Model the fold of this input.
Amino acid sequence: MTLRDRLAATPLAVWVSSLGLLYVGVALIPVAAPFAQGGSIVVVIPFIVLPIVGGIAALKGKRWSFGVAAGIGILFLLFFGTYLPGTLANPADPSFWYAVSALPALLLVAGFSILGALHAKTGISQKPYLMSFRSTGGLATSIVVGFVIGAIVIGAIAAGEVQTILANNGAPADIRIVPGAAGAVPQPYTPALLTVAHGSAVVWVNGDTTTHTVTSNTTGLFDSGSFAPGVRWSHLFSQAGNYSYYCTLHAQMAGKVVVT
Ligand SMILES: [Cu+2]
Done:
């Protein structure tokens, strides 16, 4: 039997149980690496080694090897189930990608290896969903993998947003675009009226969850363009005068800067 024949003959349940556990163990290495300096790597090593050993055992496709994979999968689900939800809540957490991929991987491992162990005695070749990618088992696996890829992409986008907000958190601003500014709030730009001496730069910060602009009512005087949540924008007022401005996206949002 050539290697290619062997790969083709390997049941879906073996692929999923084995690759799932190998992933959970190997992917933990970069996540755990920062802890190495602290010396606590010793605590993490079993969490890397155990799933890798389980993943290799699962390749055997025997009843006991499915049992080992199921045991490790469930053990890790119980452990990560208490440990990872906090990480999942924050896409900017450096371990987010691991949390959002390892938990679904472990669910697949547990499901396929338990079913594999249950049917190993009679022979899993009788169960198409454990044997072939072209089955309900293969479909379920594809859905989970698709979910994980989507979650990692969305997480990376959200992480950028969180970083921007953190970077500007507490940075000084003269005028704040308040949360819910596009709705019925008394001062979408707070304060709605700001008086400064000429030669002053006025800083706006977008403290809302959506994009806004700071645009002069007199065309062309100043225009921030769309700026995202957490972002700051400033304009230098060199001449005295009354400067009314609004948001091009939400025309009811209005503010005024008086320059003396
Ligand atoms: Cu707006």
User: Anything to note?
Assistant: The beta strands are 175-177, 189-190, 193-196, 200-206, 215-216, 232-237, 241-246, 254-259.
